[in-house]
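WARN no homologs supplied; continuing
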Amino acid sequence: MLKSLNQVLRRHRDDERGVTTLEFVFAATLFLFILFWTIETGFIMVRWVMLERGVDVTSRELRLYGLPEALQDPATGLVSNEDAHNYIKETICSHTTLINDCDDVLLLELTTVDSQTGIPNSATECVDRTGPVIPATDLPTVSAGERNVADSRDLMYLRACIIVDPILPANYAMPLPYDASGGIALVVDSAYVNEPG
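OK structure emitted
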């Protein structure tokens, strides 16, 4: 019995069939991981660049032209926070073509920069996809069209955050911080000075 077991083991030890298959499995696995990591990184970067472009174009339009006069309340001549927020959000989303449901996943923060405190360094808030409530941001009340003296020359800080879903399961592609829903936060910020009207 022991002699036949030794013969079987010796026969398998000397058999070299399938050695290249094993090498291929290891090499192909590594190659496919690198390939998918590259594709995942590319998709995330393209969406971030599109968001960056949307924020840059929108902040340029806001800097040069302000908010459209069609948004202003006829009685006060001011634009409500909600109308300003929706207009800025729609304008950013119109320039970002590769982000699905941009209106639903984009969260904006627009603040006036105080010369004493500088640019806000608080944590970036993004849309919470695990709960029913989307955190609200407080936009300053802005005059439409012609700006008044108070709005003129203010340094404005605009921060946008979008949660995107990775293609690969979490933490396999890139070592990025994932939220509770498994998405990656893409944050873009911009600053501009309100030009005089």
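The first strand starts at residue 78 and ends at 79.
OK
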